[in-house]
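User: Structure tokens for both sequences below?

Assistant:
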Amino acid sequence: MHLSIPQQTIEEAARVLRSGGLVAFPTETVYGLGADASNPAAVARIFAVKGRPATHPVIVHLPSIAHLARWAREVPEAARRLAKAFWPGPLTLVLKRASGVSDALTGGQDTVGLRVPSHPVALALLSALASGDDGRRLIGVAAPSANRFGRISPTTAAHVRSELGDRIDMILDGGPCEVGIESTIVDLSGARPALLRPGRIGAQDIARVIGTAPEAPGGEAPRAPGTLESHYAPQCPLRLVRPEHWDAALAAESRRRSVMAFRAPPPGDPSIKWICMALDPQACAHDLYANLRELDASGCEVILAEAPPPGPRWEGVRDRLKRAAG
């Protein structure tokens, strides 16, 4: 993927960030709503625009792996290995925060989520923001997904415009996002690695790099973005149906429905809209949020979604649909 935006536009976006403004920009996962992470007032604007609870942390996007030690006071060997293996890319590391890292970013916790995105527009923006770096400053862009809190994440600039419109200062249109669901989040701030949010990079991928699979989060795990019981949700109620119950659920649903399934509609099906999901997990994830938005706009009273197949490769899609139905 190449840089699809003129450099002068990137420079203008960096100036907006430095002045305390908000810039929506593409990453390989979803579009982020960015603010200068070193400016607590600008970060507070993100929370106001999204309607995001102040206790819900945000991920800080870094220009490169060289900035990791500025933001984290402890960088264990496992973190270094994972960053080397997967950055730039869709992996967020949760580490103990360095002094000077604002509570506005961490939700008041002693940890901070960090990643280096791989989208060329995101990297160009971060590079422009870091221009003139003296090697000591905290440089990064705080960027949750560019949508109202708890709703469907945006994977195109049009999604951002439709939801946030003129409430933000600038939108960088880098085309559709490649991955389509948010980054994997791994907590490395405790005694053992924990998988806080699944994504394209799976537990098996992590285990191959650090020699141990991340555990499920325990009660002491840090709060992390996108881990509430209800999240990524359309405005229309979504009902997640297991494959073995599909025919019965379809027959019993009397409301005006739209459907997202791994099969074609039966003859004479009365659904307002029926989307056949890809049976490849990466293709399904790429299309997931765009499909949910299309169904949400169809005029239905309920969305029926068929649960994904079993197996670790489907964990990210399974997690997003479960929370969308929460």
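Moving on to the next sequence.
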Amino acid sequence: MSNNPYYKQHWIDIEPERHEAYDQILAFHPAMEPLIRPLELAPGLHVLDVGSGPGHTAMELARRVAPSGRVTGVDINADFVERSNRRAQEAGLPAEFVRDGFPPLDFPDRSFDRVFCKNVLEYVDSAADTVAEMARVAATGGIVVATDSDWDMLALDTGAAGAELNDRVLGAAKSIALREPKIGRRLYGLFREAGLADVKVEVMAGADTLGRSTPMLRASMARYARDSGRVTEPEVDEWLANISRAMERGTFLLVLPQFIVRGVKR
């Protein structure tokens, strides 16, 4: 039995069906361009992806720094690392992945031209320590970028009748799955405290009306809510049915703001 808190352990132990869902949820697509644009990528750069997950975004970064650059991805999940290395080799991309339960990051000072972290700091034991480590391993003049959600700003509408159930199910899920649910709004301060300069903040808050976020709700949030014990199985089933009905009616709406923060190592 692990002594890790749920917010960490559920990323260490991932069953096959969740891997399949994460390949869909965490795939790179053009709408994510604003998240990586602040990295100012170019061929020849060495990039660190902190919490690289299934590796899809890291491999997109590798395409942009190839052929002379390289991407290193670190993740706490052994299967993510193995799958990512295999995919990178099959695609012929300059990317490698290692297992690392950061913080700390197991790299020397000033090792990377760019450091990137996407939707990870909400789960780590210490967001402040992780950002400090990201700054430490960035080269002088290097760019550090983190993007993360602010879950207390999440807006989900499945119809007036389901509003109270939405709040209870999502609240139950957040209670165990997230270490820092308000991490989005904290990133600016953490970057400044880590000594990064020229810190800039953008917020991307596109509205999902097509259901792109429903795999995340079904594979992750429903599971977390059940595991929390704060809502019953029938309540979670009703919540999922409300989502399906809203999709059928064409009235589904979800907004989860993403804070994109960029700083420079001096």
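User: Anything stand out in the second?

Assistant: The first helix runs from residue 6 to 12.
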